[in-house]
Amino acid sequence: MLQAYRQHAEERAQLGIPPLSLNAEQTAALCELLKNPPEEEKEFLMELLRDRIPPGVDEAAYVKAAFLTAIAKDEITSPLISHQGAVSLLGTMVGGYNVQSLIDLQKPGF
Fold first, then answer.
1. How far apart are CA 81 and CA 100, in angstroms?
2. Is residue 107 within a helix (H) or strand (E), and if so which, with residue range?
3. What is the arithmetic mean of pLDDT over 18-44?
4. In this predicted model, what pLDDT tens digit does every residue of 78-109 receive, in sequence order?
5. Do residues 31 and 80 lie in contact, with contact meaning Cβ atoms separated by under 8 Å?
6. Of 10, 28, 50, 96, whose CA is between 20 and 30 Å from 67?
């Protein structure tokens, strides 16, 4: 996934346009990589998570919100994303699939 995305980004850069955002399939692959990231890719993986998944209500945002919610609820872990970091990233998603998670995380016990 990373190699294909880098190639896509390079092709678009040659045209003078930014790369497309990640789709749901790419986002799911990214989330899997974030669970056990290769050392040399850590910064790039976080950049993709922060900056290359559109906020709101598309399918990629759904995958991202579910992943971050699972981290925030301690259901899964990533060495790159703390519980608080997951909540913070959920807060940047501008509404949509993150809203219910943020509400639930405000309840006692979280």
1. 20
2. none
3. 97
4. 999 999 999 999 999 988 898 888 888 888 76
5. no
6. 10
Please tell me the pTM assigned to this model: 0.91
Helix axes 59-72, 83-91, angle to 10 degrees: 150
- pLDDT given for residue 110 in this prediction: 58
Tell me what pLDDT residue 39 has: 95
Q: Which residues contact 26 (CB under 8 A, 6 or more apart)?
A: 1, 5, 60
> Bigger pLDDT: 6 or 106?
6
Alpha carbons 66 and 31: distance in angstroms, whole number? 10
Ranges of H-type helices in the chain: 2-14, 24-35, 42-51, 59-72, 83-91, 98-105
Q: C-alpha 25: how far from its chain's center?
A: 12
Half-sphere exposure in the Cβ direction for 62 (13 Å, CA): 6
